[in-house]
Design brief:
About 60% of the residues lie in helices and about 0% in strands. The chain is an all-alpha fold and about 160 residues long.
C-alpha cells in the first residue's frame, strides 16, 4: 500500500485546484473561441469528452462499487454497494479527457502540447497518495479519459 501523503503539491486542495482550473479553462476557452476556429473546435471537443467522461465514470462507479483505500486495505473489494466509488477515478478521467484533444490536435505541430499529459499523471499520483484510489483505478480513469478524447477528436462536430 502507498504511504498516505496529503501535503504540499499532492494535497487534496491542490488536486481540486487543478481540476477546477482545468474545467474553467475548457469551458471558458470553448465559449470564448466558439466552434469555428481550430482552437475553438478543440475546446468544444475537450468539453464533450469531459462531459462523456463524467457520465461514464459515474456509471462505472455505480456498477463496480469498489472500496477506496481509505475504506479498506483490501484492493479486491468490488461490488460493495453505496458509498464505494473508487473505480474508475472520475478526476483522472476528467483531466485526461480534457487534455487529449489538445495533445492529438496540436502535438504533431507543437510537441510541447505533450506536456499537457503531465496534468493527468499528476492527478493520478496525487489521488493514490491521498488514498482516494488504487493504482488500477487511476490507470482505468486515464484510459477512459484518453479514449473519449480520442473519439471526440475524430468527430466532425460537437454535440454540446
Amino acid at each position: 500500500m502507498i504511504r498516505y501523503d496529503n501535503d504540499g503539491i499532492i494535497s487534496r486542495r491542490t488536486q481540486l485546484l487543478v481540476e477546477h482550473l482545468t474545467f474553467a479553462t475548457v469551458v471558458g476557452g470553448a465559449v470564448w473561441e466558439g466552434g469555428e476556429s481550430r482552437l475553438g473546435k478543440t475546446y468544444w471537443q475537450s468539453l464533450d469528452a469531459t462531459a462523456l467522461g463524467a457520465a461514464s465514470s459515474t456509471a462505472l462507479k455505480e456498477v463496480f462499487a469498489r472500496s477506496r483505500p481509505s475504506q479498506s486495505s483490501d484492493p479486491n473489494l468490488w461490488f460493495q454497494g453505496k458509498g464505494h466509488y473508487s473505480f474508475p477515478s472520475g478526476e483522472v478521467t476528467f483531466v485526461s479527457a480534457a487534455v487529449t484533444p489538445f495533445v492529438l490536435e496540436y502535438g504533431h505541430d507543437h510537441p510541447s502540447a505533450y506536456a499537457l499529459e503531465l496534468l493527468p499523471l499528476y492527478d493520478a499520483v496525487a489521488r493514490v497518495k491521498v488514498s482516494g484510489h488504487w493504482q488500477s483505478d487511476v490507470v482505468a480513469g486515464f484510459a477512459l479519459g484518453t479514449g473519449l478524447g480520442y473519439l471526440e477528436i475524430g468527430r466532425a462536430t460537437s454535440e454540446l
